[in-house]
Amino acid sequence: MRFHDRTQAGRMLAEPLRDLQRAGEIRDPLVLALPRGGVPVGEEVARALHAPLDVLVARKIGAPFNPEFGIGAVAGEGPPLFDEQSLRMLGLTAGDLAGQVERERAELRRREDLYRGGRPAPRLRGRTVIVVDDGLATGVTARAALHAARVLEPESLVLAVPVSSVQAAAAMKEVADRLVCLETPPSFQGVGQWYEDFHQVGDEEVIAALRASAAAR
After folding, report:
1. What φ, ψ does residue 160 adopt, rounded to 5°?
2. Which residues contact 163 (CB under 8 A, 6 or more apart)?
3. Are 123 and 27 spatial neighbours (Cβ–Cβ below 8 Å)?
4. Scanning 11, 46, 91, 148, which has the fewest C-beta atoms within 10 Å of its C-beta?
5. How far apart are CA 80 and CA 181, in angstroms?
6. Which helix (H) or strand (E) element contains residue 38?
7. If pLDDT is split at 50, 70 and 90, which confidence band does 216 have?
């Protein structure tokens, strides 16, 4: 199925998560959305679970001649994560991408400062952390985000997305304690094809969602 927009997708995604919460399998939840596209989805999930919403900024590292093709990602303070198969296919090494990694890490820090407005990052230790994005294509960005979250010792780490490629969904089960995904279509060319409205989410929309969530709590 196609979703109308990220808001509808978030409301639908919240339903199985709410069932898990009622069953006692999600305790003390914290929703961390991947900006920017994951934030409208995460906002609906946080509202349904009566959970705080924050961001987990991860930056894609694109192929040199095709920036949209993610071959790696960076999140938190850890080392970059690369798709080794893609590197081999393109004849690249991690060292070839060092400059791009540093640029993306600087942008990551800028966005964290912008979105949080001076607030400290939330504590993850002992909580059920639900990482939310609007979809997974290769999944490399979500994988980097999950690794960054894992270091902060959550009790449980859940990845929740409305739609994913079959390959990415299988890979995520190795790094998340639980994957909640509504659709894994066999014919998958990109996340945007599964949304009628897939507009580019701006910084202002991210900040407004975080403020609205905080005010509601």
Report:
1. -125, 125
2. 3, 9, 135, 136, 181, 182, 183, 184, 185, 191, 194
3. no
4. 91
5. 25
6. helix 38-49
7. confident
